[in-house]
Amino acid sequence: MEKSYFEDIICAKATPSGASAIAVIRVSGKNSWDILSKIFKPLNKKFAGFKSHRAYYGNIVDKNDIIDSMLLLTFKEGNSFTGEESFELNCHGSEVIVSLIIKILLKNGCRMAEPGEFSKRAFLNGKIKLSEAEAIMDIIHSSTKQSALIAVRQLGGRLTKEINIIKEDVANLLASIEVLIDYPEEDLAIDIENYSKKIALINFNLENLLKGYNRGKLYREGIQAVLLGKTNAGKSTLFNFLLDDDKAIVSDIHGTTRDYIDGLINIDGFGVRIYDTAGLRDTEDPIEKEGTRRSKELSSTSDIIFYVIDGECGLTEEDKNNLTEIENNKKILIIINKTDIINEKQTLINQIDNFIKNTKKNYKTVGISALKEDGLDDFNNAFISLLIGEKLTEKEDPILTNERHFLLLDGCRQNLINAFEKTQTGLLDLVAFELRECLDKIGEITGEITPQDILNRIFSSFCVGK
Asked: For the chain, which has fewer Cβ within 10 Å, the N-terminal or C-terminal residue?
C-alpha cells in the first residue's frame, strides 16, 4: 500500500504492567508528530524540528505542568514498524506516570490501540507478511530457547520464503495450463507427463514442510511427560532429581504417591511438564486405586512416557504387564533406575529390548541413578533422540508451528493430489481449478486474500502494545 490503511492515531503502553525503570508508550498514525508539538518540549536549545530515526531528550508537559522527563524516538511514514508516522515515548516506569501520559495523548487526538493493532497496521501497510505478524506473537509467548529460535526465524521470513517457492511453482504451472485452455486454436502441445512430474515435485516439497508440524508443535506448546512404573521403583526420587527440588515425598513404603504432582523442566530447549504418578499395582485401597486410574489416564494423553524400572529388581512380571498395557504407538523412554547398585546394566538393557522390541517401536532404554544424580546427560540425549530424532541446529530449515498454516497447507496438499489425478485423465480445466484452490489457500497464509474476519481473529490474540 502507498498510504497508511488507517487515518486515526493510536497509542498504547508497549511494556508489561507494573513498576519498572523504563516504560515505553507507542504512538502511530497519520500526522502523529503534530501531537508532539503540543506535549513534548525538547531540552536541546538548538532543536530545529523533528526528523526520522532520531532520539530527543525532553519533557512531557500538560499545559504548563511538567509530567516527566524522557527519551523520544521518532519514525517518519514509510520507515516505521507500522509504515505510518509514529513515535515512542521512553518514560519512567511508574504506572501513575504512564497513565497520566496516555491521558494527555488521548486528550490531544489519540485513541487507545486495539489488541494487535500496531502489527495489524504493519501488515495492512505492507511492512510484514501475515505469517511474520503471527511469528511476533510466537516470540512473545516463547517459553524456551528453541521455541524462540523458531519464531525468530519465521519473523525473519524463512517460512514465508519456503511457502512462496511453492506458490511460485504452482502459479507457473497454472499459467502454462491456462494458456492451453484459453487458446485451444493455437494447437499447443499438451505434455501430461511433464505436468504430472511438476505436480509431484511440488507436493514432495510441501509434504516435507508438513512433516515438521508435529515437531514444531512440541517446540511451541511444550511436552507432557508422565512417570510410570510399579511402586518403589524410584519415580519420586527421579522426579525430584529432574526438577532439582524435593517436591515429591520419597519413602520405602509402597503406595506413598497416591495422586499425581507435576513440575516444569527444560530439556535441551524443550519445555517439559513432568507428572509423577501413583505406582502401578493391584490394590484394594480405594484412594490408591483412584491414583492408579489417574496415572493411566494421564499416560494416554501424554506425548512421552518415562517408564521407571527398579534396577535392583530387574524386569519383573509387573513391569512386563505394565509395559504391555501401554499403547504400541506411544513414545516410551525406559529408565533403569538405581544403576549405582547394579553391575550388569547392559544385560538388563538387552533383556528389556528382547521383551519389548516386537511390540513397541518408539522406545529407548537408558540407565540412571536418581539418588546419586548420575546419568542426566544420557537421559537428555535419549529423550531428544526418541522425541525428534536430533537436536535443532542453527542451519535447520524453517519448522511449521502454526495450526492455521498447517491446515491450509494440508488443504493445498489435497488439491495437488486431486490435480495429479485429473492430469492423468487430461481434464485440464479441473487441474486448473485445483491449482487455483491451492493458490488461494497459500494466499490466506501470506495474507494476500485473507478475509477480514480471519484477520480480526488473528490480531485479537495479540497484546495491546503490539
From this structure: N
Instruction: Tell me the three state secondary structure of residue 365.
Output: strand
DSSP secondary structure letter of residue 121? H
CA 291 to CA 278: how far, in whole Å?
5
Separation CA 140–CA 143 (nearest Å): 9
Task: Say which residue the cell 506425548 belongs to.
Answer: 303
Instruction: Please determine, looking at this structure, whether the domain spanning 9-129 carries the CATH number 3.30.540.10.
Output: no
389-415 residue pLDDT tens: 655 444 455 577 778 888 999 999 999
| Beta strand extents in 229-379 (DSSP E only) | 261-267, 270-276, 304-310, 331-337, 363-367
CATH architecture assigned to 136-212+400-446? Up-down Bundle (1.20)
Are residues 278 and 229 in contact, defined by beta-carbon separation less than 8 angstroms? Answer: no
232 pLDDT exceeds 70?
Answer: yes
What number is the average pLDDT over the span 50-75? 93
Helix or strand (DSSP H, E) at 134: helix 130-140
Give me the pLDDT at residue 247, please: 42
As annotated, the residues of the chain forming the CATH 1.20.120.430 domain(s) are: 136-212+400-446
- Write phi, then psi, for 304 (nearest 5 degrees): -155, 145
Whether residue 256 has pLDDT greater than 50: no
Q: What is the DSSP letter of 230?
A: S
Please list the residue range(s) of the chain that carry CATH number 3.30.1360.120: 9-129
What's the DSSP call for residue 369? B
User: Which amino acid does the sequence have at 206?
Assistant: L
The stretches of 212-325 forming alpha helices (DSSP H) are: 213-221, 235-243, 286-301, 317-325
- The three cell numbers of residue 366 are 537408558
Question: Considering the domain 222-387 in this protein, what is its CATH number?
Answer: 3.40.50.300
In DSSP terms, 242 is beta-bridged to none
Lateral strand order in the sheet of 20-28: 40-42, 54-62, 65-75, 86-93, 20-28, 9-13, 110-112
Better-scored residue on pLDDT, 98 or 133? 98
Long-range contacts of 348-354 (CB under 8 A, 24+ apart): 348/309, 348/311, 348/314, 348/315, 351/314, 351/315, 352/309, 352/315
Secondary structure element (H or E) that encloses residue 197, with its range: helix 192-211
Please give the angle made by the CA atoms of 116, 121 and 122, to the nearest 5 degrees. Answer: 100
- List where CATH 3.40.50.300 sits in the chain: 222-387
